[in-house]
Design brief:
Order of helices and strands: HHHEEHH
Largest sheet: 2 strands, antiparallel
Number of helices: 5
Helix content: 55-70%
Distance between the termini: 72 Å
Number of strands: 2
Structural class: mainly alpha
Length: 171
Amino acid sequence: MNSSPKLAGVLGAIALFSTANTALIALLTTSRILYGVSNDNSLPKIFSKTLKARKTPWVAGIVALVLSIGLLPLGQVETLASVASFTTMIAFIAVNFALIALRINQPERERPFRIPCAFKSIPILPVLGILSCLIFLFQFDRQIYFVGLIALACSAGIYFIFSKLKGGLPL
């Protein structure tokens, strides 16, 4: 008796469940990020509206869903995952760079944590984080760079427009 069709069915079900779980996590994470940025007054307050009973950010959740649906024409799940990975690597680079810049520009500032392994005033771990992210950035197809850069440009544009409307950023 050949068990490979049964095994293939089980593996297919696991893959389907895993993909659905990843999509759910991405939607929840995106809605929470929109909610947090809105609470920080960097996006309109509408994104921080929550359901009274559950305290979940429902407007941010709907926006995350609409954005996800808007990305469906890109095609395969791998493409969407790659775009998310690309933008995440860019975010990690920015965070590590900001950490290094703050350590150099404000060395006397009180901090809730210390990063071990510094060379003079430059922390080594964030430098390694930037280098590893740069290595990962060279692994994508050309389409991912194009879509990822458009997504980053749109995000930055929304942030700067909203900040300008609030009177926060001089342009």
